[in-house]
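Dear colleague,

Thank you for sharing your sequence with our group. We've completed the structure prediction you requested, and as agreed, I am returning the results in plain text so they can be pasted directly into your records. Please verify that the sequence below matches your submission; if there's any discrepancy, let me know and we will rerun it promptly.
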Amino acid sequence: MILDQIVLTNFGLYSGSHAVTLTPPSPKRPIVLIGGLNGGGKTTFLDGLQLCLFGPHAKLSNRGTLSYQEYLSRSIHRGTSTREASVKVCFRYTVEGHEERYMLHRSWRRNGKGCVESVEVLKNGVPEPALADNWASQVEEFFPANIAHLFLFDGEQAEAYASQDDSSALIRAAIQNLLGLDLVDRLQKDLVVYERRKRSENKANPGNLKIAEIQDSVRASRARIDGVMQERAALRTHRIDRCQRALRENEDAYRKMGGELYDRKEEIERKWLDAKEAVREGERALRDLAIGSLPLMLVRALLDSASCRDAREEASLRDRYLAEGLKDRDAATLRHLRREAIDQRTIKVLKTFLSDDRAERLAKGTKQIMLDLQSEVRSDLHGLLGDGLKDVSAQCECLLECQEKARTALDQAQIEMENVPETDAIAQLASEREGLKQELAELQSTELAMGEDIERQKRELERHEQRLFRLIQEEAHAENARRDRERVLQYSARVRMTLDAFRRRVIERHVRRIEHLVLESYQQLLRKSALVTRLSIDPEELSLTLYGRDGNVLSSERLSAGERQLLAIALLWGLARASGRPLPTAIDTPLGRLDSGHRMHLVERYLPFASHQVVLLSTDEEIAGEYLDKLNPWIGRAYQLSYDDEAGETQVLPGYLANKVPG
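Please find the predicted structure tokens below.
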């Protein structure tokens, strides 16, 4: 098979129609080199080739979990007003020495419900409707989809095939298709179905009308369940997810405009009013405190001075009154001493002392009285100077601290009040949000109802299946019908055992050849030719085992990243060679993450010989400089993918990347 041309029209990054000639100019120059930057459309180019050939069965890079119709819709170039896209591939295929030319054209167009796809096939320039209608099966003759990954692959992702699980899966899939074992498996499955049919054969008897009725009920229940599940999946994919995205976008816009503050508007206003009231209450409490004794804190020194002055005046008055009372007492004392015949000298000394004491007290009592405080005033003064002013001061400080907090809270509430958006500015977003919430709630309610309906119908299906199982089990005991059935089942089981034995023998016979081809390919690619001296493939598990120069098992984890990638390439190459099919090879990012030495081995020993036609999709950092020099004698055609960032589209231009062409 030789690919002559691919035409991409409004596909992915490719706006308009882009025709790329892929025919090698000669067998000695089999390589078509296509260069482009990351994100410039290389993977899209390879996806277009696979999509055109294999349709829904193509292994596409960015399809993920998308349905085929959804993928087709999304693959239409977004920068154009057109609602349709297409991919056309022209190729040649030789059968029994006779070459036929084919043109495969796959196009699709959006409509209200999704995409309408059409496939057109021309053979030697003549339309072939039968080929077009059955292309999914006809393509297996030209390029089997099950082995396409051996010829069309991404070099960066190929390294995964070097792991134990992935290599086993790859080898298993390749052997299944290369040796035609898929037919054996299909025959075994058909035998299993045949055995199942024979076991339930008695359902067709007139006496088994109940089984037939229940079987119809089971089928109807399964159809209803499948229908509701598809409706629920469509509801989730097309409506609920879209509504949720719209609600998230609305909420983002609502939040940016201050929607959260708007939702708390009443709370913020109440908080602001409470803060204002707290400030007013604090001011009233401070005024009440100022009406009392608080101002006296300003004249504390004067109050202390007045207290001292009052103490002195009180002592002066006390001395004055005491001196007047002592005069009579002293005279009586002296008379008493005289009556007692006390010594005159002693009486004279005492008299002098008492006279001097009265004179001193009388002198103190003659000081000027200025305050002359009443006892009640004196008590109030002592109370203030004791704990009164201290308590008032502490109360004042507490009130001031509370007032400061209240003012801070008022300022914060004022800021929040000012930040609350106006109703007119946010009303539309709020209305849209409520509408989206209501719509989402209704959709989720519908989805929940569908789920409950599915569970109810599953329970009903389970009851039907249990009843059906009981009836079939009862009929299985009928001896007359069972004899013939058992004989058929016995021979069918023998056939399946024979097929199993045949399958094992075929695998054992051909796995040695695959081992040789893979090892030969790997040693040809390896920089260290003695790193792997032998490899084996387990015929049962189809697992790949490497052996080093010492004859011991060599784990793939001991290989470098480059060696693992070369192992994956060798595995693909060897399996492709084992297929015996002359199919073109297309590789996206062929040099991947290889170091310079491994890259050179790949350039010199693999790329020119990978197939009779090799399409390489390279970045500007891969096939350049010395690698391009080495590969240049094998290059028959070269193109570059030029991506326009502003227009968001890629153009296919002749010639390789200008700055990578050797001078």
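Summary note from our side: The chain has three domains: 1-144+585-595+609-663, 151-258+422-580, 276-419.

Kind regards,
the structure core
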